[in-house]
C-alpha cells in the first residue's frame, strides 16, 4: 500500500509515517499543506491519503478542502481524515461526497496502533471508518433526524456499522447472535427508508441518511 500524508505537525507527520512503515505500509509523500497534498496525489497516485483537517495558512479547513478536491479529480480515492475535535460541518461534507473509501478519526485514535492501522487498511480497501465520537455527536445534532425512530440497540448497531464493522464483528462486540444483528440492520434500513442490502455502499448510506434530513 502506498500512502500520502498531509499533516502540518512535524511530530505527528513523522510519527504516522513511522507507524505505517512498521506495518509494511509505504509513505510516498509527507506534506504540510493542502497544495502539497494535491501535488503529491497527482504525482504518486497513492492508494490512500491520510489528511489533517486544519492546515496552513488559516488552519480552518484547508486539509478537508484539498481532500475533497483530490476525490473530485480522482473519484474513489480513499481518504482518511484526522481531526483534533469532532467538527460536524466538515464530517458531513466529507461523508456526503461519497460512500466508499472514507474515514474520519480523532487524532487520539492514532495512539491505538491496532485501531488506527485497521482503519487505514479498511478505508484503503474502499470501506469506511468513522470515529464513534463523531457518530455520537452527529446523531444528536438534529432532533428531527430519522435516526430518532431507532431503538437504543439499533443506534448502537448503526454506530458500529459506521465504524466499518461487519455483521459478525458487530455481533461479537455486542455479544449477540449474527441473526440478531441482521434483524437490527434490516430494521435500520427500513426505518431510514433504505432497501435491505449487504453491500458496503448501502451500509454507509444508512449512516448518511440522517445527515440529509
Automatic annotation (TrEMBL):
CDD domains recorded: LuxR_C_like, REC_NarL-like
Domain HTH luxR-type: 143-213
Sites of 4-aspartylphosphate modification: 52
PROSITE patterns: HTH_LUXR_2 (PS50043), RESPONSE_REGULATORY (PS50110)
InterPro entries named among the record's database cross-references: CheY-like_superfamily, NreC/VraR/RcsB-like_REC, Sig_transdc_resp-reg_receiver, Tscrpt_reg_LuxR_C, WalR-like
Domain of life: Bacteria
Keywords: DNA-binding, Phosphoprotein, Transcription, Transcription regulation
Pfam families the UniProt entry points to: GerE, Response_reg
Ranges for domain Response regulatory: 2-122
Entries under SUPFAM superfamilies matching the protein: CheY-like
PANTHER family: TRANSCRIPTIONAL REGULATORY PROTEIN NARL-RELATED, TWO-COMPONENT RESPONSE REGULATOR
The protein's name: Response regulator transcription factor
Species: Lentzea miocenica
